[in-house]
Amino acid sequence: MEQTISKSSRPPYGIIAVLMVGAFIAFLNNTLLNIALPSIMKDLEVETSTVQWLTTGYMLVNGIMIPTTAYLIQKYTVRNLFLVAMGLFTAGTILAGFAHVFPMLLAGRMVQASGSAILMPLLMNVMLTSFPIEKRGAAMGVFGLVLMGAPAIGPTLSGWIVEHYDWRMLFHLVTPIAAAVLLTGFFLLRDTKEKVDIRIDLFSVLLSSIGFGGLLYGFSSAGSKGWDSPNVYLTIAAGAISLIWFILRQLSQEKPLLNFRIFNYPMYALSAAISMVVTMAMFSGMLLLPIYTQTLRGITPMDAGLMLLPGAILMAIMSPINGRLFDKFGGRVLAVIGLILTVVTSYMFSQLTLETTYTHLVIIYSLRMFGMSMVMMPVSTNGLNQLPQKYYPHGTAMNNTLQQVSGAIGTALLVTIMSNRTESHAKELAAKAMKHASGQQTPEAVAMFKQQIMMKAMLEGINFAFFISVFIAALALILALFIKRATPAEDTIGGKTSGNNPVKQAGN
Description:
mainly alpha; Growth Hormone, Chain: A; 3 domains; 18 helices; globular; disordered N terminus; disordered C terminus; MFS transporter; transmembrane; cell membrane; transport; MFS_dom
């Protein structure tokens, strides 16, 4: 652990500030790209199934890299890790900005991902070790404010840039900022660390890469290739087998790459389960709304981005407020209220029509983001609070890994549900239309009729996928009822574990 970062001393605000700016830039770049995908498809002449790898590949690299961050954080200094991470991210941004063929763009994105995968766990670990438990909620709330600011401005900024400039400007805009953050970190970050005797198990890295990478690839490919594709079920099977082998190997090692024993702490295990379920539900809004607004309603990228802006701003503003409320009331009250809002708004999204007003969409989405803000950070912080300090790197790495996996699974699940429902409903509508169709229709009328059928079928598919997300969010709500305020499982004064049974560490 970092010897210069101690909860008994003044928190290293300079280090935290530099890390937060770096993480903000990484998050901003990720949200910038979503609305630009149609423009990239047109310019580089690639299909939807190909361009989605700009997102899937990013998640894939994150899923492979994040499990190693627990080792990296324990082995190296914050300064060295930050410089390597920001260096990789900056290099990837430059490469992507000058890409004129898709493989070059994809390579740039994956280099970016290798850097950003280190930044998030590194920042969270510094936050956890810098603040005492009674102030940690407020600190993590500020952390949430910074990171939620990126989704707040990302879609709107991206929509404006794509409408007025080439999509490469998205990367050119980020490059000088990332370079400035890298130079700032080089000159300002100063931290020392005692030599840590820890070695990385390369076979565990291989198993982890195949396990998490196989699951992410398989589930991410299911939406476009279908569950019956060998590329899908074989990679999922290989990933599952490798992951089981990886877990068993970690449990047998004294110093594992990723410590699965942290799931012995009940509040951490519960928080991880809730976070995974909520992440899956959250992707329904992030994934389905752009399809509904731009494909069915013809709303421009700029207006689609503006529609998401109030909700993202509200989520960012509420993050530090929820942090202070967490310190005062604990995580259960916040999570239950937030998930009730998420369930209700998810149901409202399952009732969309082709005449639903823009204002109605803005209000529902804003309420949904308001609810989400009361869940993610408080639940995650409550779980991490129960871990002994030596397990913080493993806890943050595990959280980020599980979010990547659950995000990929949620995306694949919802895309598959939407596609299957759209296809089946289109057949039903076409069969009904055939019974009442006259044989004297013009080709133009037939084409328009088919277009109307597909629009209605896709709307039904989107609504049904949102309806499924209602049950996903409801599952998280049930789990949230069992949250208790977590107390540290380690005596921070004596440095000894306060009990042999971690189950007893969860207070009311």
